[in-house]
Design goal:
Length: about 160
């Protein structure tokens, strides 16, 4: 990274239902107990969401793109490969600890605040309305990623089970 690049503002992107279409794996969350291994195991087959990918690529012209996901750390290799395969800009990947079950709005806001200590966070792009509300209330510019199909089981899991 050049010295100049380290001072560029950050554009922060969520993954699931922002850049990656999770519709094909929602069925893993419909039963009880939820099948988290199946849900995350199917992530490499996610099709990209064109609007999210285009926004990330466009943002890379004047921002450093970073990724902030509720996916657990154990999914790192698959996630990095997915980002590269779909032509997304290189960038740091922030992931949830494997045992972290706090709500996404809490974990993501914590990381955003950490990022903002030394850098301008130009925007957060996320599909989770509660994450967006928390980030907006903390003074961050937010783009609600509303281009994926509604995923009620995923939304419930993000808030209630702290899994993604």
């Amino acid at each position: 990274m050049t010295e100049n690049a380290s001072h560029r503002p950050l554009a922060v992107f969520d993954l699931d239902n922002t850049l990656a279409d999770t519709a094909h794996r929602q069925h893993f969350l419909e039963g009880r107990p939820r099948n988290w291994d199946g849900f995350f195991g199917a992530a490499p087959a996610d099709p990209p969401l064109a609007r999210g990918v285009a926004l990330a690529v466009e943002s890379a012209t004047d921002c450093e793109v970073v990724y902030l996901t509720g996916r657990p750390e154990r999914c790192r290799a698959d996630t990095v490969a997915w980002l590269a395969r779909h032509g997304l800009p290189e960038g740091r990947l922030w992931m949830r600890g494997n045992q972290d079950r706090r709500p996404a709005r809490q974990t993501k806001l914590e990381v955003l605040k950490r990022m903002a200590r030394g850098r301008e966070v130009r925007m957060l792009v996320d599909d989770d309305e509660l994450v967006c509300q928390a980030a907006r209330a903390a003074g961050f510019r937010v783009v609600l990623a509303n281009w994926a199909a509604d995923a009620p089981e995923l939304k419930a899991a993000q808030e209630g089970e702290g899994r993604t």
